[in-house]
Every structure is written in structure tokens, then in C-alpha cells.
Amino acid sequence: MTDGIKELISKINELEGRIEKIEYMIVNDKISIKGKPNSLSGFKLYYNLSNNFEKILMIGYFLEKEKSFEHFTMDDVEDGFKKCKYPLPANMSDFFLKASGKGWLMKIGVEGRKILWTLTETGERYVEEVMKYE
User: Fold this and answer.
1) Segments forming the whole domain that contains residue 16
2) pTM, rounded to two decimals
3) What is the CATH number for 74?
4) Domain identity same for 8 and 25
5) How far is CA 61 from CA 2, 12, 58, 80, 123, in A?
6) Cβ contacts of residue 62 below 8 Å, gap of 6+?
7) What is the dihedral of CA 48, 51, 56, 60, to 10 degrees?
8) Contact in structure between 123 and 104 (CB atoms under 8 Å)
9) 40 in the same domain as 26
10) Statement to judge: residues 66 and 17 lie in one domain
11) How far apart are CA 41 and CA 62, in angstroms?
């Protein structure tokens, strides 16, 4: 077999794997027909998030953009971690404060004893760059 044929077979196998992943996600309602994840677990399967900042921002982004939340709380994000079966950070509030310091999250109020958060424009751009989500 020539190198060109081996390379072609390798690319075909790679494409078949990608198609199987997409089919699985559609059948299991993790992704819409348009190709966008429509659940948090779909986001987990679709995007390879490498750290807790990315996970927190992705969950906030999902809540705001896909679920039309005007804001979210730390509890909302913790619920998202649980739905995605991510281990909870030891100190979630520390990640929120650091993300706020980086300009990714912004406090917009308080409801009862819970702080209300929203992604900043910088946070949205960061998420869209990390996830290549359009």
C-alpha cells in the first residue's frame, strides 16, 4: 500500500469516528440538528474544556445564551458541574472572584443571600474563542 492510500484510509477512519460521535449526540439529545449542543452534557461532549475557569464560564454562557438566563448564581453553576459530572472545585467562590478579576464575570446584584453574576463581553469573547462556538 502506498503512503497516499494509507493517509486516505486514516482520514476516512477519522471522519467515521467524528460522524459516530455526532450521531451519538443527536440520538441522545445532546446536540441539535443544527450542530449546536442543546444541553450541558452536550457541551461537555462537544468541547474539551481544560480547567475550572473554562467550565464555569461555559456553564454561565450556556445558561445565558441557550437557556436565556438574565443572570446566574454560584448554585446554578454548581448544578451545571453536577449535570456534566465534573468534580466540584474545592472553593468555587475563589474561582468566581478570580474570573471577575480577569474581567470575565461581573456581579450584577444580590437576590436573598446569593450574588447574581453575568458574563462580561470579554468573558463571552473568551468563551467563544475557547470553544469556537458560533
Assistant:
1) 1-30
2) 0.71
3) 1.10.10.10
4) yes
5) 47, 34, 5, 11, 9
6) 37, 40, 43, 80
7) -30
8) yes
9) no
10) no
11) 11
Q: What confidence tens digit (pLDDT) does each residue in 23-34 have?
A: 776 666 555 545
Q: How many domains, the chain?
A: 2
User: Which grid coordinates belong to 34?
Assistant: 443544527
Assess contact for 30 and 41: CB atoms under 8 A: yes
Q: Which of 41, 48, 96 is nearest to 71 (CA)?
A: 96
E-strand stretches of 24-134? 105-111, 114-119
- What cell does 59 get? 456553564
| Residue 77 contacts residue 64 (beta carbons within 8 Å) | no
Grid cell 473568551 is found at 126
Q: Which amino acid is at 69?
A: F
What's the rounded Cα separation, in Å, for the pair 77 and 79?
5
Per-residue cell: 6? 494509507
What digits encode the pLDDT tens for the residues 86-128? 999 999 999 999 999 999 999 999 999 999 999 999 999 998 8
H or E element at residue 5: helix 3-27
Q: Which helix (H) or strand (E) holds 108?
A: strand 105-111
Q: Do 59 and 2 fall within a single domain?
A: no
C-beta separation of 95 from 51 below 8 A = no
